[in-house]
Amino acid sequence: MTVIWWARRDLRLSDNPALSAAAADGPVLPLLVVDPALLRDGPRSAWYASNALALDEQLDGGLALRTGSPAREVLDVARAVGATAVHVSRETTPAGRRRDDSVRDLLADNGIDWIETGSPYAVTPGRIAKADGTPYRVFSAFQRAWREHRWPAPARLPEQVRWASPPEQDPAARTALQKLVRDCATPLPPAGEQAALERWKRFRDDDLHRYAQERDRPDLDASSRLSPYLKVGAVHPRTLLAGLDSSEGAAKFVSEVCWRDFYADVLHHHPQTLRTDLTDALAGLEYSEPGDEFAAWQRGETGYPLVDAGMRQLLAEGWMHNRVRMVVASFLSKDLHVWWPHGAAHFLDLLIDGDPASNAHGWQWVAGTGTDAAPYFRVFNPTAQAEKFDPNGDYVRRYVPELRHLEGAAALSPWKNAEGYAHGYPTRVVDHAEEREVTLARYRSARGK
């Protein structure tokens, strides 16, 4: 009997536990539902659409595409092909779980099995706990348990998968996906599983050896650039972990994969933390409402070159270097005193790798309200960060054309140069030294000190 593989955050064929389980169960109909409620113009949706279309091409047009409510569409397709089961990768975000609960209940009412196999993570959230059964909230302890727990080898797909022919296609679904890609002003990376695997091979062969030393340098761009592919499931983290050696670069890369699993685990246990603080230590902290300075931060016009370069990279590419993400987050939280969810929401609007768990808890780490939070008195100095991680100003000049006339490190402090503002670069919206003192005073007050 026919079964359905419903693709969501696993837009690939290899190392796909849900698809492998479906293939062992009967002829497989691959299905993707375009939920209009989740379609928004912009790079994030366009990136997903691009990878969905790449999967359809990989299947020679055999991906059943539907648009509408997932519960209704999955049931309708299952009825149309007489499916006995729907196979999925386990969803772990709050919205994803609510959606899946609704679909599962509807299928059960109609005698159709719901089968979850695998997840988008090396270790599925909820699998690792402390000795007393409570979840981890400190990364170092989680990482030790995560490494001891290990993860399965990459899932293998049968050499011959019996693909079921899709029922009558929904042209509106394909049109919606194509329109998202066509209307996206942001240049997107090559999409699809093959592009992801090629990117991984280039990084592993050419850059992994320098990853530990150079990953924090945006000017050198030693990042793997795999996070967008992980976001849509064009590659599974186990594929990346398989066969790595014990080099320093590999160890650091594994640690970064673990951070992704850790934040997913935290969100699994604390779903409210997408928009609220994990800890209440700063519950009484005074914040400033987003205003003109927040808008300047969004545009990359704060007058602080590294902050502006990062925000302009986000606007231009739908991506930002990880070190710079911390700097711009600290600037919004501790120089402009804006509550972190405002910045996190802006990131999710634009980042093609915008993972809800990693995004929310990365912001909370900087703001001092999450797991392993940065001490409240740690306030990133945007100029010092630029001098350390972009010492020659190459990253700044790449994204801030108003400063390209300044050579070397001069681009990092235009206020020190007589020609610093000659090409229209904005002056600083705030004085960092003054705002640091404001932040420390507010944090001490909130902590009752």
TrEMBL record:
Pfam families: DNA_photolyase, FAD_binding_7. It comes from the Bacteria. PROSITE patterns: DNA_PHOTOLYASES_1_1, PHR_CRY_ALPHA_BETA. Its cofactor is FAD. InterPro entries: Crypto/Photolyase_FAD-like_sf, Crypto/Photolyase_N_sf, Cryptochr/Photolyase_FAD-bd, Cryptochrome/DNA_photolyase_1, DNA_photolyase_1_CS_C, DNA_photolyase_N, Rossmann-like_a/b/a_fold. Keywords: Chromophore, FAD, Flavoprotein, Lyase. FAD binds at residues 211, 223-227, 253, 256-263, 353-355. Belongs to the DNA photolyase family. This is Deoxyribodipyrimidine photo-lyase. It comes from Tsukamurella sputi.
